[in-house]
Write a sequence for this structure.
């Protein structure tokens, strides 16, 4: 078991409260708005996003797409977290430039931002896992990365459910299916699509696309990094 410094403990406590809030009226309204917005989008946009997310999930589950360094063992938690923050800043800067470039290039090129950003997010998670000392060659560790994604980019209702699994991961991991094909990637990709649609679709609009792409990517990477840190803090405290 590792002890957190006061600032990290305060950040974790605030995050835990956020993850366990019941869905608000605003959450429900936003979800309704996203549903209506999705209905207005061209089918090729939906197909492109769905295909990108499906391939991402397969890459994580089978571990064939991403490479990462060896798990960092026997490091003080403060040192681990300093390294994690450095990686988050690096990926955040990269995603910001990429979002601005694809957003400025117009509709068709803007579509390529989705798989590019997904790739950056997944590589960031693999790096964070290694920095906290976890081996992503373990199938259950790769599933943990998908749970981090769900917490970061899902509706509040889904967050409530996924948080309970993450908070008791050592018990939950023993109930996971041995067949990776049983993972519910359909629900995963729909939640992710719904979450990012309002933030990212404006990136495809001429003139404002570059600014929207840069800001959206910056915030999405920052949110994912924050979620990952708190998920691994929970595990460090539990000693798992």
């Amino acid at each position: 078991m590792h002890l957190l410094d006061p600032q990290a403990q305060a950040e974790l406590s605030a995050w835990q409260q956020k993850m366990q809030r019941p869905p608000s009226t605003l959450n429900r309204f936003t979800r309704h708005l996203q549903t209506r917005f999705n209905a207005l989008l061209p089918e090729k946009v939906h197909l492109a996003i769905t295909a990108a997310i499906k391939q991402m999930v397969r890459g994580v589950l089978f571990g064939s797409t991403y490479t990462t360094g060896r798990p960092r063992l026997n490091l003080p938690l403060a040192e681990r977290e300093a390294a994690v923050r450095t990686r988050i800043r690096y990926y955040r800067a990269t995603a910001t430039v990429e979002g601005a470039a694809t957003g400025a290039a117009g509709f068709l090129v803007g579509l390529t931002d989705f798989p590019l950003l997904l790739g950056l997010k997944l590589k960031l998670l693999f790096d964070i896992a290694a920095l906290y000392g976890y081996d992503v060659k373990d199938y259950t560790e790769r599933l943990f990365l998908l749970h981090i994604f769900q917490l970061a980019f899902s509706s509040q209702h889904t967050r409530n459910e996924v948080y309970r699994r993450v908070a008791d991961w050592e018990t939950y991991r023993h109930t996971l299916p041995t067949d990776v094909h049983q993972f519910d990637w359909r629900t995963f990709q729909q939640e992710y699509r719904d979450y990012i649609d309002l933030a990212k679709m404006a990136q495809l609009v001429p003139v404002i696309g570059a600014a929207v792409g840069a800001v959206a990517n910056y915030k999405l990477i920052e949110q994912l990094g924050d979620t990952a840190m708190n998920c691994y803090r929970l595990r460090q405290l539990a000693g798992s």
Summary: Residues 209-238 form the longest helix (30 residues). The radius of gyration is 18 Å.
